[in-house]
Amino acid sequence: MFNDGDSNNTELTHVACMVDAEKHLAERPVDIILLDLGLPDAQGMEAVRRAHAAAPHIPLVVLTGLDDESVAVQALQQGAQDYLIKGQIDAHGLLRALRYAIERKTMEDAGKAAENQLLQAQKVESLGRLAGGIAHDFNNLLFAVHGYAELLSQDLGSKDAARLNPDRLLLSVNEISRAAERATALTAQLLAFSRRQIVTMNVLDVNAAVAKIEPMVRQLIGEDLRLIVSLDPGAGHICADDGQIDQILVNLVVNARDAMPDGGTVTIESGNSVIDAATAMDKPDVTPGSYVYLAVRDTGVGMDRATRDHMFEPFFTTKAVGRGTGLGLATTHGIVTQAGGHISVISEPGNGSAFTLFFPRVEAAVNERPAVTAVNLVGAGRVLVAEDDPAVRDITTRFLERAGYDVHAVADGIEAIAAAGLAPPFDVLVTDIVMPNMSGIELAERMMDRYPLVGVVLLSGYTTESRELNHATERGATFLLKPVTSTQLLNAVLRGIASRRATAESQAVS
Q1: Quick one: how far is CA 39 from the chain centroid?
Q2: 440 near 433, Cβ under 8 Å?
Q3: Which DSSP string do the residues of 36-76 spell out, in sequence order?
């Protein structure tokens, strides 16, 4: 370090050009760089950029002439600690300026280190709350599953006619199913929060989406609250998963209801909005452009600053124990972000809350979905099942065999490829996506290449291969999100067989 009036402990190294400076900085550490902005091989801001590139963490003081002061100011804006004007500083002032520059840089680095430590601590706290919340909720669900399974086992093993009553047995079965449904919903919320949920993006009319779910919303809020739905007829279209739009509207309305224990008004609005570059500049997560918004407003208790700062964190909740998971807003944030949008929140204690969800506007027409018709789920044909989890493989096989299919089940893609050549040929491949050795998508692609008449059904609860999945479905594969019911699985297999027959007929005609 430098001491006033003392340069004996200061080692100075002088180089005449930027190339030599870069070489020296690569070979030996220094405490500070005094940079002339008029070097023969680098002038002005070019010299600053090259110095920063060679030693990004070393404090920099630039040396300039009287006519270059504007360039020196630019250097400060780019991270230089100070600038000195040639001919206006002596040795004592030079050492003092360099010492102060080092001290400022040290303080800045310490501040950044403290900020990073704080951010890391907040991440750890958030992860701890996430893990604790997941453990709490799933342990409750597992308790219900184990408990009712134990009761069912005891009743079935009993000789007491009352305990063997079908209604009594069915009660335990239904409660196990309900616990599984709750676990499915919780997993969906977690995946939406983490932006890893497998979604089906469609062009949607936001007004139609609100109208579809409005009856459910009215039931949720009850008779003590007033619901106002104010939709702009000219509101544009968005690209999103319609099931997720339902989910976030329900989340926000439930939060609004809980914020008004003494009654109040919930308002749902839609409309168009244009965000210009000047507005987006102050918001790093916002891109300028045309948006369609959905807003949910309430006249409830509102939120203070501390609550607003944490409201999108997983398992953060101000509700009483048992009244909420703390995943609603985290899930909403994940869904909107995954759709390319953002959320604006206005709330103050005693003045209610307003959540406005902005989705990028699209000009495409709304996707019209064909109506789902009932089908005969009893089938015939050969099905190849690839699933690495033994329990899932077993239940999938049972579903299919009970419906009349001849099933050959294997544990991974390599076994499936080996089995695919067996006679008679398979009609459908049912495969998990996430498997060891070979992913289900790779297996499906190989099967479609080698055996174009074999239908393909892909199953998964989570995948990072969204692009590959889209490619497989574009080629005719059917995708189902786990967990699936027997009806969903059998419908998908029937679609696979129908697709196989259609392909065979097309080839026969050609």
Answers
A1: 49
A2: yes
A3: ETEETTEETHHHHHHHHHH-TTS-EEEEE-GGGHHHHHHHH
Q: Quote the distance between the C-alpha of residue 460 and its chain's center.
A: 17
Angstrom distance (rounded) from CA 403 to CA 249: 38
CB 106 within 8 Å of CB 13 = no
Contacts of 357 (CB under 8 A, 6+ apart): 248, 293, 294, 295, 332, 336, 341, 343
DSSP 241: -
Greatest extent of the chain over all pairs of C-alpha atoms, in Å: 107
Return the amino acid letter for 81: Q
- Average pLDDT score over residue span 73-78: 78
Contact 464, 196 (CB under 8 A): yes
Mean pLDDT of 162-181: 83
Q: Is 4's pLDDT higher than 50?
A: no
In sequence order, the 6+-apart residues with CB closer than 8 A to the CB of 46 are none
Residue identified by tokens 């963490």 is 57
The pLDDT value given to residue 502: 67
CA distance 137 to 183: 8
List phi, psi (to 5°) of 358.
-105, 125
Pairing of β 406-410 and β 382-386: parallel
How does DSSP classify residue 6? B
| Continuous H helices in 263-358 | 277-281, 305-310, 328-338
- Decide if pLDDT at 394 tops 50: yes
Helix, coil or strand: residue 292: strand
Taking each helix axis as running N to C, give the angle between helix 69-77 and helix 45-54, from 0 to 180 degrees, rounded to the nearest 10.
30
Query: With left for phi above 0 and alpha for psi between -120 and 50, is residue 343 left, alpha or beta?
Result: beta
Span 335-350, average pLDDT: 88
pTM of the entire predicted model: 0.49
Q: How far apart are the two ends of the chain, measured CA to CA in Å?
A: 85
Identify the bridge partners of residue 458 per DSSP, sorted by sequence position. 431, 479
**Residue-wise DSSP of 107-176:** HHHHHHHHHHHHHHHHHHHHHHHHHHHHHHHHHHHHHHHHHHHHHHHHHHT---TTTT-HHHHHHHHHHH
Whole-angstrom Cα distance, residue 86 to residue 36? Answer: 9
Query: Average pLDDT in the 291-295 region?
Result: 95
- Tokens in use for 202? 């469609």
Determine the average pLDDT of the residues in 239-256.
84
pLDDT-derived band at 370, boundaries 50, 70, 90: very low
How far apart CA 453 and CA 444 sit, in angstroms, is 12
Cβ count near 415 (within 10 Å): 18
User: Quick check: 68 pLDDT over 70?
Assistant: no
Is residue 104 scored above 80 in pLDDT? no
- The pLDDT of residue 200 is 66
